[in-house]
Amino acid sequence: MVSSLTLRRWMFHLIYILICIIIISLQIQPLKIISNEIFWPDFIFMFTTAWLLRRPKYLPFFLIISVHFVSDMLLFNPIGLWSAISIIGYEFIRRQALSQRVLKMSEELLLVSIVFTFLMCTLIGFQFIFAINNIPLSMVGYRICFTIVLYPGVVLFTHYLLSIRRAHPSDFKESREG
Amino acid sequence: MNDRKTTEDYARPIRIIFMGIAVLFLFSSFLLWKIDNPRAERIRIAAISKVFPSLEWVLLPMKAGFKLIQKVQSFNSLYAEKEELILELKKMKTWQEAAIQLKEENARLLDLNNVRLNPSLTYITGLVLTDSGSPFRRSLLLNVGSSDGIKDGWSVVDGEGLIGRIFGVGPELSRVVLVIDSSSRIPVTIEPSGQKALLAGDSSLFPTLEIIENIDLIRAGDRVVTSGDGKLFPSDVLVGQIVRSPEAGLRVKLAADYSRLEFLKVIRAPEINSSGLTGEIITNTEPTTVGGAADG
Q1: Threshold 0.80, pTM exceeds
Q2: pLDDT at B119 over 70
């Protein structure tokens, strides 16, 4: 028999995949409402991080990896590079979330901005070493800034619309029974 | 709490091992992509052609929504656009007259010279399916592929100017790397001075010019057309106009309208070019025959 917890987990997985598909297909739309000059912040990163910090056990790493791998393929990025780099950042964030301390919003934002900046720098470093593509640094800067600025919005979205919140002690009780 | 702890003790090393394998796999796929880029891109295009039909159910309604919003946006500027069009029409009338006269003259001259136009320089029109989505890579997917006869390296234009180059062909779709992509380098000629240069994309909408022979001969407003050097591109396809900005130097304002990419034309390049080029390089037989002739 399928327990309610397993069902809920699968629901979470499905919603996560759906959101990522929508983000990717929005990005690859050929018709642009917003001008080409405005760079997309990394919405997939924001959603993944916001979820990981709230429900670290609901996002298994293979799900994250496969979504990132598919997005690498579809967005014509170097295959697998960003997935490999970002999964390390996600695991760091997951460990933070699993520790008992609950982060305040400001602390969370600081953590996310540090991790994202670090990951982007690693990406640039790799691209530089392998001589892939000389991306103007200003664009990377824009991307980091947009991502950090919009992160609270994504948190609000996950909190109120998707009602993904930190687990309460009552949830733990329920999960052990289930 | 205690037995929970012990299961986690077992689970954790296994998790780490799995994760290590996954990261190793991702990294090796990246290395594969780096080492054998054309093959990896072919695999990618093949994978996308498989996945794409199942993505259509999200893409199509979104496209409809985007179109609606664009229409609403264009309603706002309708009046201004109308005024502009009337002005332009007046200008065009005079041009039309000039064009008709030139056409007649041209026909007479062609007749005089017995010129026959190259029949292989024709178009295949394709519909833009998707954008690359990331600001670091500027490319498009077109809905025409190898089954329509598209080949790697062909150039793509919209009504007005050069858009990019085919890079990666699947059976039903092909990828176009735009001239503004930071990996794009295209040989161009600057008219009227006839200077040769390389048009180099840097992800902005105004690509730069590299390797200019004599920079003093170039003025803002000069026309930039493809030169056809390297035989990858047909020559004399309009690219844009030179603009000069105080901080960024010489740049090219592209003639193609990058905000509305919907239908694009792929220029069918003549087949002889590439094969003729390799034939010229491998000239092993020629010296021996010359030598033989000298002996005899």
Answers
A1: no
A2: no
